[in-house]
Design goal:
345 residues; alpha/beta; Rossmann fold; 2 domains; six-stranded mixed beta sheet; four-stranded parallel beta sheet; 15 helices; globular
């Protein structure tokens, strides 16, 4: 087992003798997307973060955050979550032998993510409120108890997540011209900016995309009751707001919104056209390119190489998949009947 701490230790706040809690995260594929490339008019790649151990990019930050928690003598880890952070925190807490606790908005977490958190042994608390309420509560708990908060407000989360930018540069032989990324709590776009800074070379144009029903960075003010099918980015007041906006503007990028139908259209295209099954929030990066196109760069041209970050696997949210997929076709157990269906126009 290696994991990203062993690979990038010199770039991370982990000493040679420090404890390492790893599930062999990182090293995710960068896949060329010919169908999307043709539609966008650029060479588009997909950074498939759903290939991490718990099925999302959160594992990159969690390995560093939980390793530091163990070093600091924490008795437990806690997070607020719309799902992926809960699954990752629960898994890494179990790996470390720590108590895990997660607070989620009641009825607002995809079933696959809830199942993960429960199976890893975390204490899951569903509050009658939204993610922002949950984050406020866990912050207060962490201030008064020997418990490590592992949301993206934890600086070690950002340190781990920046390694995705290192990988992209290694896989392409340098940074892309642009990077499209879903934006929820805004920690990941902040981390990619840090990673590209440390990797050297030109900073890619950072394009952040939010769901229209949860787009505080686009609107310029918090959203009290965010709503979107893309549950992973259903956040109305991002913790890393200022850092994310600085990352986008300093790279000559932009933040824009895509509605649920545009997200689901990209979600279906990725699955049926590229063979990549991601959760709806992940598809917002592709939806943003298809909806808004690519802005001009400083030289007046368009980015030629674009990486779309797909943050989580499609099996995280099976209810949405089954609700949007074609129906199963019933059939008698006869060759002729099956043949008619298989070869029907």
């Amino acid at each position: 087992m290696s994991g990203l701490i062993e690979k990038y230790r010199e770039h991370l706040p982990i000493g040679e003798d420090d404890p390492v809690v790893s599930l062999d995260e990182g090293g995710t594929p960068l896949l060329h997307a010919p169908v999307i490339s043709e539609r966008v008019g650029a060479r588009v790649y997909l950074k498939i973060e759903g290939a991490n151990p718990t099925g999302s990019f959160k594992d990159r930050g969690m390995t560093v955050a939980v390793s530091r928690a163990v070093k600091n003598g924490a008795e437990a880890v806690i997070c607020a979550s719309t799902g992926n952070t809960a699954a990752s925190a629960a898994a890494y807490a179990a790996r470390a032998g720590l108590r895990g606790a997660v607070i989620v908005p009641e009825g607002k977490i995809a079933i696959g993510k809830l199942a993960q958190a429960l199976m890893h042994g975390a204490r899951v608390i569903a509050i009658r409120g939204n993610f922002d309420d949950a984050l406020r509560i866990v912050r207060e708990l962490a201030e008064t108890h020997p418990i490590e908060l592992v949301n993206s407000v934890n600086p070690f989360r950002i340190e781990g997540q920046k390694t995705a930018a290192f990988e992209v540069c290694e896989q392409l032989g340098g940074p892309p011209d642009a990077l499209a990324i879903p934006v929820g709590n805004a920690g990941n776009v902040t981390a990619y900016r840090r990673g590209f800074d440390e990797a050297g070379g030109a900073m890619p144009m950072l394009l952040g995309f939010q769901a229209a029903g949860a787009a505080p960075l686009v609107l310029g003010h918090p959203v009290d009751n965010p709503e979107t099918v893309a549950s992973a980015i259903r956040i109305g007041n991002p913790a890393r707001w200022e850092e994310a906006m600085d990352a986008v503007t300093s790279s000559r990028g932009r933040v824009a919104a895509v509605d649920d139908e545009q997200i689901l259209s990209a979600y279906r295209l990725l699955a049926s056209g590229e063979g990549v099954f991601c959760e709806p929030a992940s598809a917002s990066s592709v939806a943003g390119l298809l909806t808004h196109g690519l802005p001009e760069n400083a030289e007046g041209g368009k980015p030629e190489t674009v990486v779309c970050v797909l943050t989580g696997h499609g099996l995280k949210d099976p209810d949405t998949a089954l609700g949007k997929a074609p129906s199963v076709i019933g059939c008698e157990p006869e060759l002729a009947a099956v043949e008619r269906i298989v070869f029907a126009d």
